[in-house]
Amino acid sequence: MLITPAAHTSRADGPWLFAPARQARRRVRPPRPAPPGAAPPLAAVLFDRDGTLIKDVPYNGDPGRVRPMPGARAAVEVVRGRGLSLGVVSNQSGVARGLLTRERVAAVRRRVEELLGPFGVWAVCPHGPDEGCGCRKPAPGLVYAACAELGVDPARTAVVGDIGADLAAARAAGARGVLVPTPVTRPEEVAAAEDSAPDLLTAVRRLLDPEDAPLGPEGTEGPPAQEPPAQGPAGGPP
């Protein structure tokens, strides 16, 4: 059966995979070699959607309500500029609750890409929290599926998110997790995070240049570049 590059599902009971056209390659700066004993250089960065890339609007299926988080466009452009693969890993239990459809999830994806540019893969869990699937974060299935689609090793992948489930999924998959807290992030999640950053742009800068700006549970950098506001009302939980 022919699978189109626009979108496909991995299994009937697995995550939804949306694989848009491959990212255009730019002339990029090669990654720094890893020092002996250090982690291998990153090949991909996966972002959570709601509360990380875009403002969290509960069970949102309306593209007009999509608004980027501060620094989101600048952060993904930094990753693209290094030639790394980009992906999104998102729980969308609104599907299981009858509040969203595949078409609505895809419409929001298209709007995000209009605002932030293309991603190599979107891995979306449509299941509810009580279904026991292997893809809903904190399970590692979305990270595994996204890495498989991108052709990268989870050990060379970072997951950036705003809650503990994002970091737990990364850890379970053998990837690196970075927390970018928001007002909904619980204090215990912040305290438990091995790596965190005050904003998205700082997070990716530290991931890509750890010697210049090491990650850790604390520390800040200058404020991110401001984004032009998207059209539509503001809004948050999957």
UniProtKB/TrEMBL annotation:
<dbReference type="InterPro" id="IPR036412">
    <property type="entry name" value="HAD-like_sf"/>
</dbReference>
<dbReference type="InterPro" id="IPR004446">
    <property type="entry name" value="Heptose_bisP_phosphatase"/>
</dbReference>
<dbReference type="InterPro" id="IPR023214">
    <property type="entry name" value="HAD_sf"/>
</dbReference>
<dbReference type="InterPro" id="IPR006549">
    <property type="entry name" value="HAD-SF_hydro_IIIA"/>
</dbReference>
<keyword id="KW-0963">Cytoplasm</keyword>
<keyword id="KW-0378">Hydrolase</keyword>
<comment type="similarity">
    <text>Belongs to the GmhB family.</text>
</comment>
<dbReference type="Pfam" id="PF13242">
    <property type="entry name" value="Hydrolase_like"/>
</dbReference>
<feature type="compositionally biased region" description="Pro residues">
    <location>
        <begin position="225"/>
        <end position="238"/>
    </location>
</feature>
<protein>
    <recommendedName>
        <fullName>D,D-heptose 1,7-bisphosphate phosphatase</fullName>
    </recommendedName>
</protein>
<keyword id="KW-0119">Carbohydrate metabolism</keyword>
<keyword id="KW-0479">Metal-binding</keyword>
<dbReference type="InterPro" id="IPR006543">
    <property type="entry name" value="Histidinol-phos"/>
</dbReference>
<feature type="region of interest" description="Disordered">
    <location>
        <begin position="208"/>
        <end position="238"/>
    </location>
</feature>
